[in-house]
């Protein structure tokens, strides 16, 4: 069976705070490690009251220090927000502290709104320099060359695995050209998924890091004891996304029995399109839909996110999926 992994934004719950969010993240990571998930990735977002993973490399260190074997990484670091040398030093430090366990996923988007993006950056060229920044970052992880004046210390010679993340065709093309593993954000931008996979696989060029294409796909998955229970848990994400699209980002709210009256018809249609690949239901329902998704996409790996308000219910969701992996999909 293909590997399953976890994507976490360290959600801040309505009525709670970031301190509890970090406790929940570490607890989930420890459970995920015991349940056999391959990776635990944290996502960089800024100016989002419901997301506590803004200082992504710091949270990665928190999770890696509290676990033993699971790979920990970024899903991703938004490279336009950072100088490549700084990221090389941060992830060189992490790789030195936790050898063989650190991944560096890179994104081209800012991970925030326009005004916050301006506050984050020293220049506003944004994604225009992304390919060059990726190449520069790669160079810092290579062995030091004679006469090299700028080095990542630590970082040089560690060859930290780099992934490219994307929600469109651009990163698929770049990942193929550079011979890097590719993670597509089908959990919130599914429209271009199949085309991006085709472009990546058809144009892939082997590299020192990777000899053949490797595609990981993101999925929202909420599993519970019944379809109705899972659908109710899923309303937390539906509410949060509705508020975000109105320009009112908020902590993750508790679930509700019905979304009626909480969104307009247009908001519902737009959100259902963005989350059209979400898999929500009982163990039997989730197993069938996961099997169909994997067959359709030929994914090499699935990375799952589950924005569930109740921590125990969130743990249960990932436990159910691990059981599906080991039984129905094995």
Please, what is the average pLDDT?
Answer: 94
Structural class: alpha/beta
**What fraction of the residues are assigned to beta strands by DSSP?**
5-15%
Strand order of the largest sheet: 1-2-3-4-5-6-7-9
Number of helices: 11
- The residue ranges in which pLDDT falls below 50 over 5 or more consecutive positions are none
Please identify the oligomeric state: single chain
List the helices and strands and how they pair.
Layout (H helix, E strand, L loop, with lengths): L3 E5 L9 H17 L4 E4 L13 H10 L5 E8 L5 H14 L4 E6 L6 H7 L9 H12 L20 E5 L3 H9 L3 E3 L8 H11 L11 E9 L3 H19 L19 H10 L4 E3 L1 H15 L3 E5 L5 H16 L4
Parallel strand pairs: 1-2, 1-9, 2-3, 3-4, 4-5, 5-6, 6-7, 7-8, 7-9
Helix pairs in contact: 1-11, 3-5, 6-7, 10-11
Provide a descriptive summary of the structure in words.
Helix content is 42%, strand content 15%. The protein is an alpha/beta fold. Helix 1 (18-34) links the parallel strand 1 (4-8) and strand 2 (39-42). Helix 1 packs parallel to helix 11, helix 6 (170-178) runs parallel beside helix 7 (193-203) and helix 10 crosses helix 11. The longest helix is centred in the last third of the chain and has 19 residues, at 227-245. It starts with a strand and ends with a helix. The model has no long low-confidence stretch (mean pLDDT 94).
Key words describing this protein structure:
330 residues; 15% strand; single chain; 8-stranded parallel beta barrel; globular
